[in-house]
């Protein structure tokens, strides 16, 4: 049976590829794996997945030799702000190579960083559109922020410089304000960062009643470190979180999707701390101003009421004086009337007494006796009140003398004798 060796077959494949294929091709693929060896050579694995899912459609090895890698990677990072890494989609100029021992691979001649920028922007817009279609994009922004947020849940890495900056700014503030904060630790960069932050948010959610707001912060770093904040799942959790979320993830140039959906986006952890402290300061100044306004209104009201009170005092004093004068005149009139009435009464009483005195004088026995009358009694009784009998002793009193006599006979006044 006719046959060829494996080496001959591989040479045939190599010759066929070299004669049938173009010197190079521009391909779009995702970097599935990437590693550097000690000689500076870069070994990659290019993959392609279905758009509707994660099913692998194609895979091939790639190589960037050290003399090319230095210039390609430097240029790529200067344009995109991130190094070549696994997980990003690139437009690469590649040469198909076949080695008798190592098999088929792609030798990377160039990578267009502008394509990666555009691809990243496209994915970013897709995620934004999806969040808007879900109806959650503005949800966190519509939450009412307490007048003075003081109970803060902080999501960050405990060792992160950004967390230290935030806490120093809060604890050393010149106004002496005190905020109650609690750290919920999370990985803030790398492939696991998005899920780690989601897990921290879920922890805060269980304790939502204990906090006024959430602060999501990290220190500075490479652009690639921010990619987790463009993750759909993380952005969706931030958008729908029941507490206002402040972001300060340490970038100066671009906003991540988490920044866009958060209640308040600030550039750095220090800026977040300053924002919270400034809000407290403004509230304190507002209270002071309100207090001053209230005191001014009270003072104005007191002065006005004091003026009215003095007016009322003057009017009352005038009315009282007028009333007292009128009452005094009335009392004088009443007193005069009473004096006249009393005088009349006394005069009448004096006249009556004089008449009584005259009457008494007229009936006074002494005066009657002086007129020639006398008084006769029988045994100490008025003679008109007893029946006089013969032998009774009579006592007759006149003005000049007392006469004692004995009855010798008694005659009736009606008798003619």
From TrEMBL:
Domain of life: Bacteria
Keyword Amino-acid biosynthesis: no
GO MF annotations, alphabetized: exodeoxyribonuclease VII activity; nucleic acid binding
Class in the EC hierarchy, top level: hydrolase
Localization per Swiss-Prot or TrEMBL: Cytoplasm
The keyword rRNA processing is annotated on this UniProt entry: no
EC number: 3.1.11.6
Any one GO BP annotation for this protein: DNA catabolic process
Domain OB-fold nucleic acid binding positions: 5-112
Domain (Exonuclease VII large subunit C-terminal) ranges: 137-356
GO cellular component, one term: cytoplasm
Keywords: Cytoplasm, Exonuclease, Hydrolase, Nuclease
Catalytic activity: Exonucleolytic cleavage in either 5'- to 3'- or 3'- to 5'-direction to yield nucleoside 5'-phosphates
Entry similarity comment: Belongs to the XseA family.
Record-given protein name: Exodeoxyribonuclease 7 large subunit
Species per Swiss-Prot/TrEMBL record: Marivirga aurantiaca
Encoding gene, per UniProt annotation: xseA
């Amino acid at each position: 049976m006719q046959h060829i060796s494996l080496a001959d077959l591989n040479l045939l494949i190599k010759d066929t590829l070299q004669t049938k294929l173009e010197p190079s091709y521009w391909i779009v693929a995702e970097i599935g794996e990437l590693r550097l060896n000690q000689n500076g050579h870069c070994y990659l694995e290019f993959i392609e997945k279905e758009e509707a899912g994660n099913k692998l459609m194609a895979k091939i090895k790639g190589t960037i030799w050290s003399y090319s890698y230095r210039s390609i990677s430097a240029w790529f990072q200067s344009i995109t702000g991130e190094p070549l890494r696994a997980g990003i989609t690139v437009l690469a100029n590649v040469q198909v190579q076949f080695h008798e021992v190592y098999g088929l691979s792609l030798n990377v001649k160039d990578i267009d960083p502008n394509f990666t920028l555009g691809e990243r922007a496209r994915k970013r817009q897709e995620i934004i559109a999806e969040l808007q279609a879900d109806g959650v994009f503005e949800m966190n922004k519509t939450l009412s922020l307490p007048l003075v947020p003081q109970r803060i849940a902080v999501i960050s890495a405990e060792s992160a410089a950004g967390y230290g900056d935030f806490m120093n700014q809060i604890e050393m503030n010149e106004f002496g304000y005190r905020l109650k904060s609690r750290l919920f630790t999370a990985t803030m960069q790398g492939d696991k960062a998005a899920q780690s932050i989601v897990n921290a948010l879920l922890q805060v959610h269980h304790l939502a009643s204990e906090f006024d707001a959430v602060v999501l912060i990290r220190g500075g770093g490479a652009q690639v470190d921010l990619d987790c904040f463009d993750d759909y799942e993380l952005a969706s959790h931030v958008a729908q979180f029941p507490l206002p979320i402040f972001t300060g993830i340490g970038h100066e140039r671009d906003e991540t999707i988490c920044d866009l959906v958060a209640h308040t986006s600030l550039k750095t952890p220090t800026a977040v701390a300053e924002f919270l402290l400034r809000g407290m300061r403004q509230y304190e100044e507002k209270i002071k101003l309100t207090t001053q306004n209230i005191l001014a209104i009270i003072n104005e009201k007191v002065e006005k009421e004091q003026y009215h009170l003095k007016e009322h005092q003057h009017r009352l004093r005038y009315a009282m004086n007028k009333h007292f004068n009128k009452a005094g005149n009335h009392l004088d009139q009443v007193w005069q009337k009473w004096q006249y009435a009393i005088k009349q009464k006394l005069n009448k009483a004096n006249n009556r007494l004089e008449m009584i005195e005259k009457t008494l004088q007229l009936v006074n026995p002494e005066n009657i006796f002086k007129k020639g009358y006398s008084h006769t009694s029988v045994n100490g009784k008025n003679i008109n009140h007893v029946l006089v009998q013969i032998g009774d002793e009579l006592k007759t009193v006149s003005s000049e003398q007392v006469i004692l006599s004995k009855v010798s006979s008694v005659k009736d006044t009606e008798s003619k004798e």
